[in-house]
Amino acid sequence: MNTVIKAAINRVENIYQNDDYPWIVGYSGGKDSTAVLHILFHGLHRIQKFHKDIYIIYSNTGVEIPYSISIINRVLNDYETERKNQGYPIKAIKIAPHPSEKLFAKIIGRGYPPPTDKFRWCTDRLLIRPLNTFFKEHQLNKIISVVGVRNNESSSRNLTLKENENEDKYFRNQKCNSNRKLFLPILDLSIKDVWKAILHFDFPTSTRASEIATLYAEASSNPKDRDVYGAPLQPARFGCWICTVCKNATTLKCLIKSGKIELTPLLDYRLWIEEERSKPINRWPKRRNGQDGLGPMTLEWRKKALQKLLNTQQKSGFKLISDDEINEIYKYWRLE
User: Fold this and answer.
1) CA distance linking residue 8 with residue 36, whole number of Å
2) CATH of domain 3-209
């Protein structure tokens, strides 16, 4: 174990014992959040007496890449069992947006244009609002959010980290809420360190480390380029299969190239919806507030998009939209 990972484990052990604020650990099934789970587990292993709860929270957006969802569900179930055996005060929780707030309900039902880097409305609807609802329902006012953010991931991420600096290097202030602090335990870890934290530990075993490494390798430009421990050496990113913020749908293309050809209908739909969003013929000539500029997607286009999505679902064999979300789409249409 190298010094950077040791320091991260020590950090978790010490900071957990500093106060009574419960911890909220965001889990996405990605490499960084998986590394956080490993370091968290090892930090807690050194503590004799636990005095506050830790919530591992996964927000099911409904549009994650299908293979990611499969791993995530098994990880959360097994992690819950493993933490019970260790006696850790961890609760694995799944949350989700209301069906009326889900991505396809908003795009196909309400007519929101698919998200862009300048109009990224999806994060608030799919992730932030469900989390705030969870906090309210459980009366969690003062909390510490444990986040798998690292230095030098990107220039935009570095700027965000700089803007919200705290006196303590490993903490950040949360905008608009002084009762919540962000704890960044893996801030100093490089990508190599992240994979070491995932693959080099004997426990926890529930996080499906080798499966995650394989999926990342298959989503990279060279799936066979891996080190002796199985860590992929080429970069890859995961998230929503329908994401139109990230250009080129690189992850889907690489997974298909690696042999997961059943994802091809998803890629076709993803590329189609990105191309369609900016065509004036598919948009109202005015916004809903009456201002000039491209408005919502037309009802005619939305009906076409739903039928095409259902065809994509049938061709791929993956469940891409729930019946509840389809019902919400029809409700939105009746309002037009």
Assistant:
1) 9
2) 3.40.50.620
pTM to 2 decimals? Answer: 0.91
* Residue at 288: amino acid letter: R
pLDDT at 22: 96
The pLDDT score that the predictor gives to residue 85 is 87
Domain ranges of the chain: 3-209, 238-335
d(CA 62, CA 71): 14
Sequence-separated (6 or more) residues with CB below 8 Å from residue 3 = none
Provide the token pair at 271. Answer: 């590329």
Per-residue model confidence (pLDDT) at position 236 = 81
Query: Three-state DSSP class for 292?
Result: strand
> Cβ(195)–Cβ(31) under 8 Å?
yes
Bridge-based pairing of strands 180-183 and 171-173 is: antiparallel
Element (H, E) at 143: strand 143-146
* Amino acid present at 281: I
264-276 and 299-316 helices cross at what angle (nearest 10)?
A: 170
- CA-CA-CA-CA torsion sign (9, 14, 17, 22): negative
Could you give the CA distance from residue 64 to residue 81 in angstroms, rounded to a whole number? 24
Q: What is the pLDDT of residue 202?
A: 83
- Count other Cβ atoms within 10 Å, centred on residue 325: 22
pLDDT computed for residue 43 by the predictor: 95
Beta bridge partners of 56: 25, 92
Among the listed residues 52, 23, 25, 48, the one whose alpha carbon sits nearest the alpha carbon of residue 38: 25
pLDDT tens across 155-170, in order? 666 666 666 677 789 9
Q: Helix, strand or coil for residue 268?
A: helix
- Reduced to 3 states, what is the DSSP secondary structure of residue 116? coil
pLDDT tops 80 at residue 263: yes
